[in-house]
């Protein structure tokens, strides 16, 4: 059976909830209250959904100097997948409150692991609820699975690799809001601005009325940004390597596969005060 590899619509997922090869993962998370997403999941979630915590399950917060949400170690992430009942054959669907920013982090983690059948719920739980689709407070008890795999580290860049990428003429796309990119506001990190040479594509531009734009529209917009470059020559970044994954998901929806991630992103870049900082457009 062909799988969902980028997005899935709520009504389609609702009809597939009893599939034996399906695992739905609730990724709701708030930087302002890191416990809120899990608490919300315990109260109500898509039936059968397990919960993924951004800072416990999708990051390794013990790693220092690699930004606010460091990329997790392979073994720890594989262990979590197994606990959720995810195997290489599983169709995974990730969702969050709505815009897909956190769900896209799980999507990219799995994609870099070589997992093809993973998609984000378009419109998230907000659209699911608005459509009157079922919810549950019953906590799932998944059957443990087996998962072996390796991250494709060619798609994961640190700050030194990003410097080399830019020096070679590569494209670096920053997914943060324009005012943060320009250095006018910085609510999260100690330094405002952006990596010199980066361009700004706020991840919210991938959406229209809370859902992803069409593949055709995204393709037109990203091809203009790429300026003839191959998608593999694109590195995506944001504040901490989370919303950057939203741009990578949008690119793949548009048929532009192979984009890479600056895992530490802005919060990783500024750990070294000797690195340059740009402000303005």
UniProtKB/TrEMBL annotation:
Residues annotated as domain Rhodanese: 18-137, 166-278
PROSITE patterns: RHODANESE_3
CDD domains for this protein: TST_Repeat_1, TST_Repeat_2
Assigned keywords, A-Z: Pyruvate, Repeat, Transferase
One GO MF term attached to the UniProt entry: thiosulfate-cyanide sulfurtransferase activity
Gene3D superfamilies (alphabetical): Rhodanese-like domain (3.40.250.10)
Name this protein carries in UniProt: Thiosulfate/3-mercaptopyruvate sulfurtransferase
Organism this protein belongs to: Thermomonas haemolytica
